[in-house]
Design brief:
Layout lengths: L1 E2 L5 E4 L4 E4 L4 E5 L6 E7 L4 E6 L3 E5 L4 E5 L6 E7 L4 E6 L3 E6 L4 E7 L5 E6 L6 E5 L3 E5 L8 E4 L18
Antiparallel strand pairs: 1-2, 2-3, 3-4, 5-6, 6-7, 7-8, 9-10, 10-11, 11-12, 13-14, 14-15, 15-16
């Protein structure tokens, strides 16, 4: 499950249900019939992005599909949203990191990480840097301005499954 920024709404991935958990009220429920890899809220709880098996789709709070981004193929593993920049950040099976402006629907930047599939994405809310964890144990830090990572460090010799950034500081 994924919570909105105000912590009032929650999106459950299994059947893609938008729930206001304090009142136990289902706001929307969508049956997709395919695998949901990740869910991310955009602009409070008014819209949310869903990384499905094939496509990346954006839904509104009533469960209606607003937009389908078919340029994010073959598949997207992780989603994150920079609320002050209106940027949706995605990373997927090919290791391409993409930044999409959700106000216009245009792709702002695309970077090839050249480290294979990536399944860990975390954004630092203090500075907007994207932290990617790769299967080789390498963690890279990206921004849309540079075509190469700001930092590339070997954190572990095994696969990285999760990554945590502190909300008020630029530290990992």
């Amino acid at each position: 499950h994924v919570r909105s920024r105000r912590q009032r709404q929650m999106c459950i991935r299994d059947s893609l249900a938008l729930v206001e958990w304090q009142r136990s009220k289902i706001l929307a429920e969508v049956q997709l019939g395919e695998t949901v890899r990740d869910v991310c809220f955009l602009h409070q709880h008014a819209m949310f992005a869903v990384a499905q098996k094939k496509d990346l789709c954006i839904y509104d709070s009533s469960g209606i599909e607003l937009h389908c981004l078919r340029t994010h193929r073959p598949c997207v593993h992780r989603l994150a949203f920079l609320p002050y920049h209106y940027l949706l950040v995605t990373v997927g099976e090919t290791g391409h990191l993409r930044y999409v402006d959700v106000s216009t629907g245009t792709q702002v930047a695309e970077h090839a990480t050249k480290l294979g599939p990536c399944s860990v994405l975390a954004l630092n809310p203090a500075n907007g840097i994207a932290h990617l964890g790769h299967g080789s144990g390498v963690v890279t830090l990206w921004s849309p301005n540079l075509p190469t990572p700001h930092v590339r460090m070997l954190c572990h010799t095994a696969v990285s499954y999760t990554h945590l950034t502190l909300p008020t500081t630029p530290y990992v």
